[in-house]
Amino acid sequence: MGSRNGLARFDGNNFLYFKADAFDSSSISNNNIACLHTEGNFLYAGTYGGGLFVMDLLTLKARQVLLPGESKAGRYSVTMIAPAGKDSLLISTNKLRLLKMHRSNFGTRVISIAGEEQLATGQGFKKCLPALHLQDHVWLLDHEEIVLLNTKTGSFRQQTFDRNSRLLQKKEKINDLSSMYIQNDSIAWIAAFYDGLIEWNYRSGQYHIHSLGSVNGNGNPPYVSDITAYSPAALWLATSHDGIINFDLAAKQFSKEPFFNAGSARTFFKDSNNGTWIAAANELGYYHPWYRGFAKISSPLLQNDDRLLLLKWLSEEEALLATGTKNRAGLLNRLTYEATELKAPAAGGATLFSVAMINDHPVLKSVSNDFYTIDKEKQMLQPFFSGQVAVALKSLKVNGMAPVKNGFLFTSSKGVAVMDSVN
């Protein structure tokens, strides 16, 4: 996850943070992250004013990549990184509109765009999507236009959109495009930060603007920052003021998404398990169709008592849930969508924060370093460790745990500890 304050890695249980360090050549190049892209064991990251860096996900070491015309003292803002065939990436910056980089040796060359002076300038492209119906073509999105580019010849065609200005009594160009979703071989949907949602037939060139003003009811702009397909019949829009807005593709109507209570949503990411991650102002949310609701995952400094912190799938039929309220957990049946609360011991610890599977048993850890497992028959949480082991782990201030051969591995601010066996 990228933010204005560095890079964060979330493993399903804990966060690991990365910051720029001028005295560490293997640190990230800049804390203001603009875009991310993963390929195999590598993370490619663009920054505002810090150029491009590549992180090895096995060693978690970063390497800075200088682009043509850059120096260590003068880096570009890299606004887009996207795949371009088997061995290459497309990169856009605020100085060079489009480059192609070879992944094996990080060699780069500027892609010549015929008639580039006709394009909007100064901010770089934000997004790149494959043009599935045309070989060697991609869709490129920047703040005020969409470009269909032939990556081999450099030829392109562009599309801009106009709104009716009540103040000026004339049409004016929309210059706040933020995201794009291709529905099929003729229809695309474009999110505009202030204007809402644009339905565009990219074959005929016709478009229609769907205003979001009727959803929030207060006349304020919705501030739409991203768009994704919630299902084949509906879209989700991430907004700064109204959380997630649902758009019914058949009825062409907006509605407030009731599951997501946060006022601000920034961007979406689809994972390989058919789940959707939602980045909000101060938290990470997760939605899965099995659950029909959101898990809100926050770092300890951002926890609220009413937030759902954990969502761990124990099987295809059962999920483990825990809330920010002290020692509240439950088992969710995905077939009935009913949750059974698990009672905590009378002398319970503090907020449940992470979960790991140890010997096929879920183990929950609290912020105060108490460890629990589940007694399904009694429908309650039971202490997992006892005696001197529990005392030792409490003093260790564990922040992570994992099974190893014939034992357990624990990480903490004091180092790493391995327990050979547990009685």
Percent strand equals over 45%
Helix fraction by DSSP (H/I, runs of at least 4)? under 10%
The dominant shape is globular
Major sheet attributes? 4 strands, antiparallel
> Using only CA atoms, what is the Rg?
24 Å
- SS-based class: mainly beta
**Mean pLDDT value:** 77
- What is the strand tally? 40
Structural account:
It is a single chain. The chain has 423 residues and is mainly beta. 3% of the residues lie in helices and 49% in strands. The strands form eleven sheets. It has a four-stranded antiparallel beta sheet with strand order 4-5-6-7, with no helix packed on it. It has a four-stranded antiparallel beta sheet with strand order 8-9-10-11, with no helix packed on it. Strands 12-13-14-15 form a four-stranded antiparallel beta sheet, with no helix packed on it.
Which characteristics define this entry?
single chain; 4-stranded antiparallel sheet; about 425 residues; mainly beta; globular
How is the secondary structure organized here?
Blueprint (H helix, E strand, L loop, with lengths): L1 E2 L2 E5 L4 E4 L14 E7 L2 E6 L4 E5 L4 E5 L12 E6 L4 E6 L5 E4 L5 E3 L16 E4 L6 E5 L4 E5 L5 E4 L2 E4 L4 E4 L3 E6 L4 E6 L3 E6 L5 E4 L2 H4 L7 E8 L2 E6 L3 E6 L4 E4 L8 E6 L5 E5 L3 E5 L4 E5 L10 E6 L4 E6 L5 E5 L4 E5 L9 E7 L2 E6 L4 E5 L4 E4 L3 H10 L1 E7 L2 E6 L2 E5 L4
Antiparallel strand pairs: 1-2, 2-3, 4-5, 5-6, 6-7, 8-9, 9-10, 10-11, 12-13, 13-14, 14-15, 16-17, 18-19, 19-20, 20-21, 22-23, 23-24, 24-25, 26-27, 27-28, 28-29, 30-31, 31-32, 32-33, 34-35, 35-36, 36-37, 38-39, 39-40
